[in-house]
Amino acid sequence: MSANALTLNTSSPLFDFTENLSNVYGGASASRTRCFGMYSGDANKSFLISAADYTVVTNNLLSTIYNYGDLNLSGVVTAADYPFITRNLLKSSNVPNF
């Protein structure tokens, strides 16, 4: 999520988050060699990645509809989604969960 409102246009719907950490909402993001993004793993939308997020994945295993438990965005909730929680345990987000 961007730090500021963006004007969308027909030439490019893309936004480059790699330019600066200040482009990210809340100023906190996953960062790796100037590539910024949001942490994956907050499946229960609590703003904190915790053990409770495992329950969302477990309760939705093999679900193929859009689902908060599909943390790797593969289209299916599977055991491959658990590592996103493990890797980001106790990280928080300021991104609104609407």
Q: For the residues shown, what is the average pLDDT? A: 79
E-strand count: 2
Q: What composes the largest sheet? A: 2 strands, antiparallel
- As an assembly, this protein is single chain
Task: Return the structural class.
Answer: little secondary structure
Specify the number of helices. 2
- Rg is 15 Å
Low-confidence stretches: none
Globular, elongated, flat, extended or rod-shaped: what is the shape? globular
Q: Which strand order does the major sheet show?
A: 1-2
One letter per element, helices H and strands E, the order comes to EEHH
Percent in helix: 10-25%
- How far is the first residue's CA from the last residue's CA? 13 Å
The percentage of residues in β strands lies in 5-15%
Walk me through what this model shows:
The chain has a two-stranded antiparallel sheet. The model has no long low-confidence stretch (mean pLDDT 79). The chain has two helices and two strands. It is globular. The two termini are 13 Å apart. The protein has 98 residues and is largely without helices or strands.
Features:
2 helices; 98 residues; little secondary structure; globular
Give a nutshell description of this structure:
By secondary structure, this protein is low in regular secondary structure.
Helix/strand layout:
Layout: E1 30-32, E2 35-37, H1 52-59, H2 82-87
Antiparallel strand pairs: 1-2
